[in-house]
Specification:
With about 475 residues, this protein is of the alpha/beta class. The strands form 5 sheets. A 7-stranded mixed beta sheet has the order 8-7-16-17-18-15-19. The model has no long low-confidence stretch (mean pLDDT about 95). The chain is globular, with a radius of gyration of 23 Å. The longest helix is centred in the last third of the chain and has 20 residues. The protein is built from 16 helices and 20 strands. The protein binds flavin-adenine dinucleotide (FAD). Flavin-adenine dinucleotide binds next to helix 1, strand 15, strand 19 and helix 16.
């Protein structure tokens, strides 16, 4: 390591760690800071959940399908990496989304008029929903971090504002689709903070929708307020490839794949990163961008309190089943995004995306690609089944719904034992405790989906914030602390 160069370690080469490393390089340039970044990644390849598999003309995503094009930080990163030309917006078919209601697929209405005539929920549930306008906002909104007794679950929020049936039919599958989680367990403030803001700022959801629609009136936008699902022509691996190449091509950065970190040790005012056959340092800052359960192990010797808090963040498992069919063997037109399944339907699948309708070109000609999700926090036992049993279960659920005939041309089961962090009630208070304890350990930072947003967009946004914080910290260091190994 070079003398007087600020050495920074990033643990974990998923999208959060890679984006943080690139952010550090860019911000160091802007600040005129002499910095070197080392990214430690356990796997032989970087990317974490973001991997795209290519097999015989099929293009499959290992983890995320894409990201919403509404997050400026992600769009800035895409621009910075020169990936704009590779962006692939989802097709217009995605405006048709379905829910399972009473064992059947029902299209989610997109206008109030269509909702009133839909079979989505009962008449009395529709009346209860209309009453949302008169439900007063809750007291202590936005205080979940300081005052955890005010933390409300997504389910409680749904029941309070829109009624039980809405919570069960519409909110529950949304939580399953995004988090693989349970609406009765996840904290609204941690998992869907925007909902808390809308209630606090506008007094309710319908009032917020009216106010925001007024604000948007006359302004031309390509996508709705929440954005359009977007990927890259080569899949999400394009993003990882460009991030990794930027790091590898820099003479101020190193991407060490196949380097599973075991411990991070405090050494006077600096840090050392250790694993099998390596003990590297000193680093003036360490960004923990591995999942919380891994970070908990790394930090056990430094701060048992932080370690214990990190270890208490649960993760839901998920099995992704990719199925390819000949178009002629699927009766349904698959003109849509796909289907989500509320827990009250008591089915084994969480949902099924019609991938080749969302992103045309992901299946060979005259073929269609489906992607079912199973497991989640509510049904972890699915993970004990072997691949054959998981596929049989998936087919038994989908055969009737989509009119599948014959056997799939292509099958791939992808298992995520610890797929997605679950922000349970009390999550924000837990993060606050970690923040307070972290003050005793200057140079320690956290990034990634375990904390303040599980989406790719949240990881990229946080990477911007954390890299800026690190550079700010480095600017305050006495020059002697910039180190030598
Ligand atoms: C099935 C599935 C579908 C999803 N769909 C979407 C979607 O459509 N849109 C969306 O926005 N988000 C989606 N997500 C969420 C999104 O994929 C994740 O939030 C995001 O990829 C998390 O990135 P990360 O860098 O925080 O973590 P990870 O991707 O988990 O990366 C962490 C990295 O740390 C490494 N690591 C772990 N331990 C160590 C160690 N000891 N030493 C060194 N390195 C270590 C891991 O190998 C990994 O590379 C989905 C997730 C899953 C599982």
């Amino acid at each position: 390591m070079k003398q007087n160069t600020c050495q920074v370690a990033v643990i974990g080469g998923g999208v959060a760690g890679l984006a943080t490393a690139v952010g550090l390089l860019d911000k160091a340039d802007q600040a005129g800071c002499d910095l070197h970044v080392t990214v430690f990644e356990a796997d032989e390849t970087p990317g974490g959940n973001l991997r795209t598999l290519h097999q015989e003309g099929w293009q499959l995503e290992w983890g995320p399908n894409g990201f919403l094009d509404s997050e400026p930080a992600t769009l800035r990163l895409v621009d910075r990496l020169g990936l704009k030309d590779r962006l692939q917006p989802s097709s217009d078919a995605t405006s048709h989304r379905f829910l399972m209601v009473g064992g059947r697929m029902v299209e989610i209405p997109t206008s109030p008029k269509a909702f009133l005539s839909s079979r989505m929920v009962s008449k009395s549930a529709k009346m209860r929903m209309a009453g949302e306008l008169f439900v007063p906002p809750r007291r202590n909104l936005g205080e979940a971090a300081e005052n955890p007794s005010t933390d409300e679950t997504v389910y409680e929020f749904g029941v309070r504002r829109l009624g039980r049936e809405f919570a069960e039919v519409m909110l529950d599958p949304m939580v399953k689709g995004v988090f693989g989680g349970e609406a009765k367990e996840l904290s609204l403030a941690a998992a869907f903070p925007r909902m808390v803001e809308l209630e606090r700022d506008h007094g309710g959801l319908f009032r917020a929708m009216i106010a925001l629609a007024r604000k948007r009136r006359g302004k031309k936008t390509d996508a709705g307020p929440s954005g359009k699902l977007t990927s890259f022509t080569g899949g999400m691996a394009d993003l990882v490839g460009a991030l990794a190449a930027t790091i590898e091509q820099s003479d101020r950065a190193e991407l060490r794949c196949g380097s599973p970190v075991e411990t991070i040790n405090r050494d006077m005012d600096t840090w050392r990163v250790c694993g099998p056959g390596f003990n590297v340092g000193p680093f003036v800052a360490v960004v923990q961008a591995s999942p919380a359960h891994a970070a908990a192990r790394h930090l056990a010797g430094v701060s048992p309190n932080i370690s214990k808090s990190l270890a208490s963040i649960p993760f839901a498992p998920m099995a992704v089943v990719a199925l390819g069919f000949d178009r002629s063997t699927v009766k349904h037109d698959l003109n849509g995004f796909g289907l989500l399944v509320p827990g009250r339907e008591k089915r084994d699948i969480l949902g099924c995306l019609w991938t080749s309708s969302i992103f045309p070109g992901r299946a060979p000609k005259e073929k269609v690609l489906l992607r079912a999700m199973l497991g989640g926090a509510g049904n972890p036992a699915v993970m004990d089944l072997d691949d054959e049993a998981i596929v049989a279960l998936t087919l038994s659920e989908l055969r009737h719904l989509l009119g599948l005939r014959g056997v799939p041309d292509m099958i791939r089961v992808i298992r995520h034992q610890k797929a997605i962090a679950q922000y349970h009630r009390g999550h924000l208070a837990l993060l606050r405790d970690i923040e307070l304890e972290k003050e005793h350990f200057p140079g320690l930072h956290f990034a990634g989906s375990s904390y303040r947003g599980i989406a790719v967009n949240s990881c990229v946004k946080e990477a911007e914030t954390v890299s800026a914080q690190v550079i700010e910290q480095l600017a305050e260091l006495p020059s002697t602390t910039a180190s030598e190994a």
